[in-house]
């Protein structure tokens, strides 16, 4: 019995020694893990200011994804968004990152250079998001003459490219193509708009004037998790940053002109609208078609069918208008041979009586 305390003490010392050895082994292994990809990701995040895509952000992106494959009615619209307009300025300024704020193209460009986004080449009349049309980063940089420093690959590590912030052409990207789908979801009785893809357009001041060069197509679902936390200022009067870039697209706060609709012949408006006037008329016609289709979805009651309450309200309104018109009871006791003209009612009282909001309760 006297040896029992010594035995317990020896066991306690042995367990503490094992725990200490395990902690030291973990400390020896942890630097090896952080020297790999984890450290590179942390440094890249620190330099660019863009967060890593977490599991929660991925789940949120899946929840916001609108399924339009089973829509019974859908129309695909291509718009050209001019960032120099005041309504679209939140997507353009600041052209140089300030206090952690950056414009839309700078965010896209940094995500592409870090390998977080995949872009697809612009081929003209159509866009395909498959492996054959992926645009490698080096090809994009060479095509649009963007300066960079190439760091060769070492072993299993691929080559990567370093671009200074002053060489990012965010100041020259003044236009975006936006591809959107107007659709009617008959299962949920919802008429909505979904942004499908965006394409930045580089403006080059050539000898013969400005030349617009579309750079690449980017599926909107891939960039939305990153820009859903990028808050922007949307008003010159209210400087509070209450909206994100994702809100700007989902709420359709931008102003874009229609340049093409998805059609059987796959032709743009410019192909059959040679003059600016004809182009404007065609754009207005398409906008009106979209608005007309949405209005036709909802039931509208016939205003000519009045209920008993409506008829009583109409009688009261008529009596009220007669009193306001100056017709007294003495004017009714005229002789049979005399014809008295009633005073002319004001123009505002000639229309049919309208019920007030208070009487509808």
Give an overview of the whole structure.
With 361 residues, this protein is of the alpha+beta class. Helices cover 35% and strands 19% of the residues. It is built from nine helices and eleven strands. The protein has helices spanning 4-48, 55-64, 104-113, 137-143, 220-227, 245-250, 269-272, 276-296, 308-324; strands at 73-82, 120-121, 149-151, 160-162, 173-185, 190-206, 209-214, 216-219, 231-232, 243-244, 256-261. The strands form three sheets. Strands 1, 2, 5, 6, 7, 8 and 11 form a seven-stranded antiparallel beta sheet that branches. Strand 3 (149-151) and strand 4 form a beta hairpin. Helix 2 crosses helix 5 (220-227). The longest helix is centred in the first third of the chain and has 45 residues, at 4-48. The radius of gyration is 34 Å and the shape is extended. The N and C termini lie far apart (90 Å). Mean pLDDT is 78; it is low at 26-46, 326-337 and 354-361.
